Fold these 2 entries.
Entry 1:
Amino acid sequence: MSNDGKNLADIVKNVHRRLRQELYKTGDMESVWINHCRNVPCLKVQLRLYVKNKICVNFQVLRAKSYLFWLIFSKIILLKKYASSMHKLATEHWEQLRVSNPATSRINWTWSFLQYYFFSGGLQQHRQKSNSDTEWPKLILNESKVTVLDVGSCYNPFGEYEELDVLSIDLCPALESVYQCDFLNIPLGKTTVIDGQSVLSLATNQFHCIVFSFLLEYFPSPSQRWTCCEKAHLLLLREGILIIITPDSKAAHSNSKVMRSWREALSAIGFKRIKYEKLQHAHCMAFRKSSVESVLKAEDRELLASKMYIPQDFYNPSDSENEEKDEIKFTEAELAEGFTNLPLFDE
Ligand SMILES: C[S@@+](CC[C@H](N)C(=O)[O-])C[C@H]1O[C@@H](n2cnc3c(N)ncnc32)[C@H](O)[C@@H]1O
């Protein structure tokens, strides 16, 4: 990979690493998350507030406000930089590989699975296989389009497919075709509400497909990943599909324990894994919403949420500046290595 590509990948990885460090320091994932994404969608409001408060006579207060403003502003810049780096990495560097070797592409994989499931009889096959007495509702495609919610979309990679009706959302979108939305905290209700460039709420039982492509490892805690999967279950139509793609450049077996653990957690939510494939740089999985909402006890939920771990969750953050160097200290270092890298391709 070129130096430019490596630099872009470092910007992306550093944001993930910083979140994990913050969580280790404070142990409070809620405040870490609020801090991370606070005010991202309301830069205009922040600027207005700041200008209004500039008349404040108390110098200390003004200094504190300036500092706060600087903090907020630097965070916004950080997330914007992340968005543009991720966009460039995917569309310039990874795209070259997609063209030369289409089998390596998570986008191609997702599209070919959706074609099979929704347009080539896959849905019917799985309905029969499920051996359920339940009367399955007919999953209807509106105008023959598959409704897709692409969470953490960044640059709307699925927008190119005419057969898909895609709602792309991201904490900090790289493009205007992607709506701003914090999926972790978005309210779910009867209708989807969009205001300008932001999604304010999402309707349950609405989507044929939800995509988490390179999303879950962004979160520093297993329970945040679990929350996303629970939300996906509520938002999907019955028999709908959750696609999860997670980066890993190692051989399939190296992280099979992690993938098994995710599968168990998702099964408890009501998702059945119906397709798994290891591509050169990613694990690709399709989960089918096979049951209506399950009622879980609080202690079971906690245990199940912990199953959504990734190896980096166990790093000592004081070592994390030199994460790669320090891997040898961990018993699961082998396992962890694959996940410390977003796909970094050797040229
Ligand atoms: C590694 S990028 C993946 C981009 C794209 N899906 C792909 O496969 O190339 C992860 C994206 O998830 C977004 N993200 C992280 N947390 C999110 C949240 N709570 N709600 C919405 N998007 C989120 C980030 O802003 C980032 O753009």
Entry 2:
Amino acid sequence: MAITTYPWLLALPKVELHIHLEGMLEPELMLSLARKNGIQLPFNTIGQLYEAYRFNQLQDFLDIYYQGAQVLITQQDFYDLTWHYLKKCQQQNIVHAEPFFDPQTHTARGIPFGDVIEGISAALTDAREKHGITSHLIMCFLRHLSEIDAFNTLEQAKPFLDCLTAVGLDSSEKGHPPEKFSRVFNQAKTLGLLTVAHAGEEGPALNIWSAINTLGVSRIDHGVTAIDDTKLIDYLVGTQLPLTVCPLSNVKLAIFPEMSKHCILNLLEKGVCVTVNSDDPAYFGGYLTENFYALSQSLNLTQTQAHKMLVNAIQASFANDNRKQAMLSQLTNFLNSNKHSMI
Ligand code: HPA
Ligand SMILES: [Zn+2]
């Protein structure tokens, strides 16, 4: 059955595996934090910010994203940013999330690592206790920086390993292949952390192979260029290694010229374990519900396909077996009671 309404998607219980905390910095919050903290930005109004959010490629976005993140100074700022997203989760019935954060963006400006991670973790704990939203935090290394910088960051994370589930890899893919970080990822694994990596967003399918073979990842973030490599597709289908795909992001960053050309449903129909995610919702025009809605509008996403991608997300998550079972039941109950209704 085709999905036609936004309210149905809004109420659908959802899981998000690819979202950057710095990418949920909405213009209103960015400008108010800039005023509070006395940070000068090249934008003064919300209109100017939206005007700047026109990107031809990943790097155009990253330049603005790192600029915006400079307004985050205190532990409370990181709490508020995270809490803002968790309120969104409540509104959109996102029941489990595994957000990324980029500590190097902050420690390079002299912000203590502990303030960043403690602010974020306190908000995640409060959301679990007050609203039952579960989460796992993933620390990303910026791949445009050096291996040594990544090792230093991992060192700073050691007192906070209880707050972390995994390490990831993000920022500029071109010129910074996964293997650059194989030794850091190995060390992270010896500390008990799981691993994920952005690969095959702007870069070739070869980067996905490298993330698999040199970083031992549990999931690939993006991974859409896998569609160019039939051997890789066979591998992904055989292993069910998940891809965390971000449709609105991919169109905003011109990976696909328009949503109707996006390959996510082709990957799904081939049997790849794909999931839907929002990446940087404040910059790309929508949270998880809007990503599903865009697929329903441009690719005629069906309820069965939405259900399958959510089952994939639950199974691909780092939640424990009990939590996975509870989320699967919640999803089944929703679909049984809302199959024919469009609310
Ligand atoms: O889509 C992305 N790709 C790489 N790095 C990022 N950091 C935030 N979003 C992204
Ligand atoms: Zn991302």
